[in-house]
Amino acid sequence: MATRKKIVFPYYNSYYTSTAIIIYQTNILKSLNLLDDAIKPEIYIWHTHQSPLHEIKAIQYPYIHYINIKSLGFRIKKALSKMVDVFGLSKTILFNTKYDCIYPAYQDNFLNGIKERIYWKADFQENYFPQYITAVEMNWVKAFFKHLQNNDSNSTLVLSSYDCKNDLEKFYPEIKNPVKLFRFVSHIPKQLNYDNITTIQQKFNITLPYFIVCNQYWPHKNHLVVLKAIHQLKQENKLNFQVVFTGKTSSIRGNEYFTKLKNFITENNLANDIVITDFVERNEQLILMKKSIAIIQPTTFEGWSTVIEDGKALNQYIIASNIKVNMEQIQENVSFFNAEDSNELSKILANFSINKPVIQIKEYSKNIEDSLQDLKAIFSL
């Protein structure tokens, strides 16, 4: 049998630092687990103490290794790598030569020994919302693209959508790296117990039929347009539902944003019409999404929406802002609205609160297969 490809997965985040990246990475491994056994790669998980390894272990991927980057052996190897850098030998004395590729790669001479470094850029939000990006983050992005251009110009860059590809060409025309798309999918647990909805609703004090918004509290996620639509319906005496907002209430983007939302709720007497759950365990969130009237995705910017992908996998209806990437991502079981038009959104909500949206059952396995073909192309499997 041919030697299995050896792929490093840096798995450094936690649910606290980035829920979306954790879901992204675990879903990649779930997809790879669907490959024919003969071509399944060996996966090397580089992790820290905060990495939610239980998510990976639950997948039961058969060819997997766990390497703690805080272990003594790993730290010694890193220290030796830095010494090699000092003497300008980082391209001569190589570490990690047993690995075929790393995804997502990052700027570190320690990775030079890995045969192929595959990079990932989730989106280009810093170009659209620089006011919410710190100088440190912006400098990292500049260094990232400089590294691609000068040091890794032959390495693959993975993007999430054609819309992202257009942004790359718009903002970084000098980058000539090969680009491949990975339209990630959601893998919904088969064991979800939708009968638990009553218990979950009681837990979060959801007392009416509801719509749901599942986004981090970042300004471009555009929760305010939803609140304005609810306020308008309340003034018109047409509010016969609640809206549930899930997601951590702390944010690294615009720290005053959540406070602004809370002030709007208080000033307009919407406290009984809004449910803010804070962080929700993923299975509970998926059940809440499935049992909602519809999912609202009001974002003004996205790379590829996990929320929309979850909705598609659940065969749930979605009310989405009409930004290009959303329209690229979903064409059925969806109503689009202008992201800045709360009046347009209010009419959609009012209609669906009375006349439940009609859902066309779609076979999501086709999406999973297409995404798997993306991965096979990226990793040359």
How is the main sheet built? 5 strands, parallel
Average pLDDT works out at: 93
The overall number of domains is: 2
General shape:
globular
The end-to-end distance, rounded to whole angstroms, is: 14 Å
Query: Total helix count?
Result: 14
Question: Rg from C-alpha positions?
Answer: 22 Å
Strand residues, percent: 5-15%
Order of strands across the widest beta sheet? 3-2-1-4-5
Question: What is the N-to-C succession of helices and strands?
Answer: EHEHEHEEEHHEHEHEHEHEHEHEHEHH
Helix content: 25-40%
Query: Uncertain spans, ≥5 residues at pLDDT below 50?
Result: none
CATH class category of the largest domain:
Alpha Beta
CATH topology of the largest domain: Rossmann fold
Q: Which architecture of the largest domain per CATH? A: 3-Layer(aba) Sandwich
Can you count the beta strands? 14
Find the structural class using helix and strand composition: alpha/beta
Task: Please characterize this protein's 3D structure.
With 381 residues, the protein is an alpha/beta fold. The protein folds into two domains: 6-185 and 369-379, Rossmann fold (3-Layer(aba) Sandwich), CATH 3.40.50; 194-362, Glycogen Phosphorylase B (Rossmann fold, 3-Layer(aba) Sandwich), CATH 3.40.50. It contains 14 helices and 14 strands. It has helices at residues 19-32, 53-57, 72-86, 125-128, 135-150, 162-171, 197-204, 223-235, 257-267, 282-291, 306-313, 324-329, 342-354, 365-379, and strands at 6-11, 42-47, 64-68, 101-102, 116-117, 119-120, 157-159, 179-181, 210-214, 242-246, 274-278, 295-297, 318-321, 334-337. α8 (223-235) links the parallel β9 and β10 (242-246). α8 crosses α13. The relative contact order is 0.11. The mean pLDDT is 93.
